[in-house]
Amino acid sequence: MQEFFQLLIIFGTLPMMIFLGLHHKYKSKAKNVELVKTLIEHDKEVTPEIIEAVGFTPKKRHADLQFGMILVASSLAIMAFGAAIPDDPDASSIVGGIAMLPLFIGLAMLLFWFFVSRKEDTSS
């Protein structure tokens, strides 16, 4: 039974955090869309100030950098967690292998920011 909970925590924490973050974002955007629809149905003028006030904003300037750094830090935390598991010499390599997925995605986002997004910031 204890092994089940260990596996659940190891493999369930990251997906649960991602799900909760995306679910919250979806709910807040759906609420904002309903507000704008209500304004349109009641023949109210929808100005750019209203659109910005309800949360429809363009992509943040350094979103790729921020997301990449979060993924790399999460990967390093998962690796540290694997290294801290006592009594199992294979745990470090197994959990380290699992941590490679967010690490490489994070590195790809950092490279994307370095080669693409950063150039767009200087040109505008």
Notes on the protein architecture:
- This protein is mostly helical and 124 residues long.
- The chain has 2 domains: 1-57; 58-124.
- 81% of the residues lie in helices and 0% in strands.
- The protein contains 4 helices and no strands.
- Helix 3 packs antiparallel against helix 4 (91-123).
- The chain is elongated and about 65 Å long.
- The termini are far apart.
- The mean pLDDT is 85.
Q: What structural keywords apply?
A:
124 residues, mainly alpha, 2 domains, 4 helices, 81% helix, elongated
Provide a quick synopsis of the model.
81% of the residues lie in helices and 0% in strands. The chain has 124 residues and is mainly alpha-helical.
Write down the domain tally.
2
Helix/strand/pairing class, anyone? Answer: mainly alpha
Number of β-strand runs: 0
How would you sum up the global shape? elongated
Q: What is the share of helical residues?
A: over 70%
Q: Provide the gyration radius in Å.
A: 21 Å
Number of helices: 4
Low-confidence stretches: none
Ends distance: 57 Å
| Percentage of residues in DSSP E strands | under 5%
Main β-sheet, in a few words? none
Helix-strand sequence: HHHH
Look at the structure and give the mean pLDDT.
85
Domain DUF6249: 7-115
Keywords: Membrane, Transmembrane, Transmembrane helix
Protein name: DUF6249 domain-containing protein
Organism: Hellea balneolensis
